[in-house]
Amino acid sequence: MAEEIKRVKLEDIALDDQLQMRTSSDPDVLDDYSKMTDKLPPVKIILDTEGKLWLTDGWMRFGAHRKAGKKDILARIRPGTFEDAFIEAIQANNEHGVRRTPADKRRAVERLLDHPKYGTYTDNAIADLAIVSHPFVANVRKQHKPKGKANASSTRTGKDGKQYKVGGKVLCDRCQRIGKAGKDCLACAELNAGRRAAKKAEREKSMASGKAKFDFPKFHTQFGPIAQAPEALVKAHPEEKGCQEYKDAVAFLNRFIKIWNKWQAKILKKKG
Q1: Which candidate, 14, 38, 75, 132, has a CA 20 to 30 Å from the CA of 199?
Q2: 56 by DSSP, 3-state: which?
Q3: Domain count, the chain
Q4: Same domain, 37 and 67
């Protein structure tokens, strides 16, 4: 069966909360849609092998038809599985209709993270599916507690289909097939050693060409004196201790010093 457009009875359409990515609907938009049902584009439906018609895109249009007392709706139907319906619903309203809110995008990402298959995908792969940014997915993953065990996996599936160990390590073909890194796998170790060597060579080449030169003494000359700023400030303006802006300035400088000292120690350790 090829894709077709035809009218479908509302009562024949299957609704599933997993396919609804809207966190809320706008009553005003729903009211407007209910007055112009004949002008609305067709909703999208996936017809599975059991004959179920899954609504994937057009929940607000569906609601508008129901509110207007209509018995059927124009639909674009194509064959597929519930998983096909799930992905189509994830990407719904990206290019048309009422713009997705941050909450809608977050719900789509959370649904993917909870999925037994897609929850094992890398942030980049999930971002492509949900049509959002990679940092957005990373932020949601940090805050979200998945319902399944997908996020507990030690590997992630990348956009290239390869398995990556959480932390960025790539797996050999054998470990990709079994879905996890074998203990003391020499093939994985060799692959990652090669990647590290290539990155190191690239850094050294960049340093040699002068593109990535860092002059620490010069940097220290410019910013090092700030480390003594709070003490000098207190000596120069002892009468200002009760001023809140003064206290905030000293607190800020103390935070800077703490970070500066840690960073300086790290740089000097590397140079040594």
Answers
A1: 132
A2: strand
A3: 3
A4: yes
pLDDT of residue 240: 61
Q: Nearest 10 degrees: CA dihedral of 102, 108, 113, 114?
A: 120
Same domain, 13 and 85: yes
Query: 67 with 30: CB under 8 angstroms?
Result: yes
One domain for residues 44 and 81: yes
How far apart (Å, rounded) are the C-alpha atoms in residues 181 and 191? Answer: 12
What share of the chain has pLDDT > 90, as a percent?
28
- Residue 14's pLDDT is what? 93
Domain membership of residue 11 as a residue range: 4-90
Q: Which long-range contacts (CB under 8 A, 24 or more apart) does 176-179 make?
A: 179/153, 179/155
* Alpha helices (H) along the chain: 27-34, 59-67, 82-90, 102-114, 123-130, 134-143, 173-178, 186-208, 216-223, 229-236, 244-271
- Per the domain annotation, does 126 fall within a domain? no
**Quick check: 49 and 15 in contact, CB under 8 A?**
no
CA distances from 143 to 9, 153, 199 (A): 41, 17, 31
